[in-house]
Each structure stands twice: as structure tokens, then as C-alpha cells.
Amino acid sequence: MAQGTCSHIEAIATVKDAKQRRCDECVKIGGRWVHLRICQECGATGCCDDSPNRHATAHARASKHPVIASAEPGERWLYCYPDDAFAEF
Ligand SMILES: [Zn+2]
Ligand SMILES: [Zn+2]
Ligand SMILES: [Zn+2]
User: Does this model's pTM top 0.90?
Assistant: First the structure.
């Protein structure tokens, strides 16, 4: 889809949407989140780096799933961790 970014982002044909609008890891520990991100490999929803627990980044590091999308209304972008690449869609 998005050309000129990185192979991980280019490999995404359909951007996954959030299954539910919450961070499951935060719900488990009673944490709070600021924004939500969606793992494009497995669809897991996690909280952003402005959130205290940064579960989206923790998930990407632990699982080696490279690309997240914003789950925020009106935001349409992808981010690849290993390449530090952004793409709008
Ligand atoms: Zn990449
Ligand atoms: Zn979280
Ligand atoms: Zn994942």
C-alpha cells in the first residue's frame, strides 16, 4: 500500500482496526491510557508512548511485531518500529 516507506508497511494490504477500544494490559492492572495503537500483525490493542505503561511498544518489543496503526478517530497512520518509519494511509 504505502510506497517508499519500508517493506513491513508496504506488505500491509488492509489496516487492522481495533477489536475493542481499550488497552487489555491496562485493564488487567487497573492502568490508564492516553491513546491506543493497534498491532498490525496480530490485532492486539495497546496504549501509546504518552501513556504510563506504553503497552503498544512493549508488545512490539516482546513479540517482534513491527507495525502499529493509530486507533484514534481521525488519525490514519502506520508506524514501523524496526525502521522508525511513518506512513499515512
Ligand atoms: Zn519496517
Ligand atoms: Zn496499556
Ligand atoms: Zn502483535
Answer: yes
